[in-house]
Amino acid sequence: MTETPGPLERLVGSAAGTDHVPVQINTDEVSIARIYDFALGGKDNFAVDRAAADAMIAVVPETMLLAKANRYFVRQAVRYLVGEAGIRQIIDIGSGLPTAGNVHEIAQEIAADTRVVYVDNDPIVLAHSRALLAANDRTTFLNADLREPEAIFTHPETKRLIDQSEPFAVLLGGVLMHLEDEEDPEGVAAGIRDRLPSGGFLLASNTCDNGEPRARELSRVFAEKGMGGRCFRTWDEQIRYFDGLELVEPGLVPHNQWRAGPDIPEPDSPAHSLHIGAVGRKP
Ligand SMILES: C[S@@+](CC[C@H](N)C(=O)[O-])C[C@H]1O[C@@H](n2cnc3c(N)ncnc32)[C@H](O)[C@@H]1O
User: Does the beta carbon of 66 lie inside 6 Å of ligand 1?
Assistant: First the structure.
């Protein structure tokens, strides 16, 4: 089924303003960014995305909570990075569709001089980010892929906003999980750690195989719906993303345990153990 494209689907180009190549949004195939948008209560999704989300909710009714808790974790971590750790440069890879409390909004509210480079490989994110960031010269968006980090870190816009000899943070919120084993998420994380200077930070959060049968079931549905065949990796697998880094307390934990304030959604839900995250600092 094809839906009539809305104004933002007709677009676009690059928020960087350098390569305004028109892109087409495919409304017949699921999009990770749009499913996540639906789970967060957004409106930038199509029937195919909502059907995929429904299939996940049928297996684990708290699926939407996992997305909301992940987003909560990212926001809390940005508050920590800018407000407590003094970070003023952020590269957010797999940034997703704009939502309430975007990274640059949180960061620049705490420290207006914070620069943010958003990166996502889904053209719908390019479309929406361009609209959002048009008037903000400390923030940009690159339509690029985590699997090709060289293109991200050498892009002129990244070089314009991020002094890579000074501490910066890389956010990998809910994105390593979408890489297949053969795409080597551990190697990708290691490549990013290598690029961080001393005092730089890496954030990673992902769905987690906590040993419960429903983790396996949900993983199967994620794979069926084209989200990636190994979305649910174990804690032991995910802790390796932080090799050589000092973990910010309390380490790699469910999001309701990571500096969670009173506004964390459903704080006591056991489903929180299906999504974990951490922030590590390069010594
Ligand atoms: C679950 S959303 C997470 C959004 C946001 N980082 C957060 O944590 O709230 C994952 C995002 O990663 C993007 N993504 C998936 N694979 C990617 C890749 N190989 N390179 C760049 N972005 C990717 C998807 O398009 C989607 O927008």
Answer: no
